[in-house]
Design brief:
Elements: H1 11-15, H2 27-32, E1 56-60, H3 66-79, E2 85-87, H4 97-109, E3 113-117, H5 143-159, E4 164-167, H6 170-182, E5 190-193, H7 202-211, E6 215-217, H8 224-231, E7 238-243, H9 257-264, E8 267-271, H10 287-310
Parallel strand pairs: 1-2, 1-8, 2-3, 3-4, 4-5, 5-6, 6-7, 7-8
Helix pairs in contact: 3-4, 3-10, 5-6, 7-8, 8-9
Length: about 350
């Protein structure tokens, strides 16, 4: 007898869905007890992949400098954790040229993409609205000077070899995309939208893609249905914390990792850390915390990949070294009009 998504299935069917499909958590034991499983609907799966054919990649976030990077590289080798991207949250402006060069070289030695955050943001600005209950303008760049600071960070970082930049403001994103189109930034520079700006509906996700985003963080409290809704309008790579920091909710969704991939592909699995203090903007006073949390993020990543492997859901990872987001939709960019001297 065939089953449609609306037809109840018995426990043994659910425990072993389709041939070659991942095993669902707890399926075998619960099937023996006659526990009914909800049917998997093939229609809610993402139809998109990375250009290399993979459905998921990995990211270690909050790696705040060369020393933390060295810890991460050592620990990923020790735990055999494949990593596609390493990102930093404090900002380009919190790093010296030597720091950036050392991080670029360290990531290049393992063929890992390095992503650094751009410039001033509202949460560290003098504006008081971000301290109110409403949160005000959040991480956005306040005024011309903050926008210019983000542009300065982008130019400096790319001149030092960085090819991925984190952005938390739609105006900054559009400006940097226009710079990329105009050749003011390297053509292979990619822009990653911050989790603190992340879109929460399909329309906003599509808008950020067209503004120039090459991968987009979404809040970790989006439901699986929300991911499917987004994937029906956009194939732009998605970044999602499998474990979110406390200031992003502290959610731990390890057991959903396979389903997050199925619904959200192409997806970067981000290994954050709950129940740990914030470290932005990073400085030496936070050294021990930064190194300890960097090490533990790697271990959390290993736990997630082990869980995927136990359930037969670890296939589909992009080859290591992959960073191409694929062909994405963009708003048209008009040629820039030079500003006359003296204006």
């Amino acid at each position: 007898m065939s089953h449609t998504p609306d037809t109840p299935r018995d426990a043994s069917d659910a425990a072993h869905p389709a041939s070659g499909a991942p095993r669902r958590p707890g399926a075998d034991a619960l099937a023996r007890l006659g526990h009914a499983f909800p049917a998997v609907d093939p229609a809610d799966a993402s139809a998109h992949t990375f250009p290399d054919g993979g459905t998921w990649r990995t990211e270690i976030p909050s790696v705040e400098g060369p020393e933390a990077l060295a810890v991460v590289l050592k620990e990923t080798a020790h735990l055999d954790l494949p990593v596609h991207r390493i990102s930093q949250g404090s900002g380009v402006w919190m790093l010296t040229d030597d720091d950036i060069t050392e991080m670029v070289d360290g990531c290049a030695s393992r063929d890992i993409e390095l992503c650094l955050f751009t410039g001033p943001r509202g949460t560290w600005d003098i504006g008081g609205s971000t301290r109110t209950d409403s949160g005000g303008g959040g991480l956005r760049a306040r005024g011309h000077d903050a926008l210019a600071g983000c542009v300065e960070d982008a130019v400096r970082a790319t001149e030092l070899g960085v090819r991925c930049l984190l952005v938390a403001d739609e105006g900054v994103l559009w400006t940097l995309h226009r710079m990329r189109v105009a050749g003011l930034l390297p053509a292979d520079t990619t822009f990653k939208l911050s989790a603190l700006t992340g879109p929460v509906n399909p329309a906003s996700y599509a808008v950020y893609e067209q503004l120039g985003a090459d991968s987009l963080n979404v809040p970790s409290d989006l439901t699986l249905d929300h991911l499917t809704e987004i994937r029906r309008v956009s194939g732009a790579p998605m970044d999602m914390y499998v474990e979110a920091p406390d200031d992003l909710g502290g959610y731990i969704r390890m057991y959903e990792a396979a389903e997050l991939i199925r619904r959200g592909a192409p997806l970067y699995l981000k290994f954050g850390l709950s129940r740990s203090p914030g470290i932005y903007p990073y400085g030496a006073q936070l050294r021990e915390t930064a190194l300890a949390t960097a090490r533990e993020r790697v271990r959390r990543g290993r736990l997630v990949l082990d869980l995927l492997a136990r359930h037969g859901a670890d296939g589909g990872m992009s080859p290591l070294g992959s960073r191409n987001p694929g062909e994405l939709r963009r708003f048209p960019v008009s040629p820039a009009t030079p500003v006359p001297e003296g204006d």
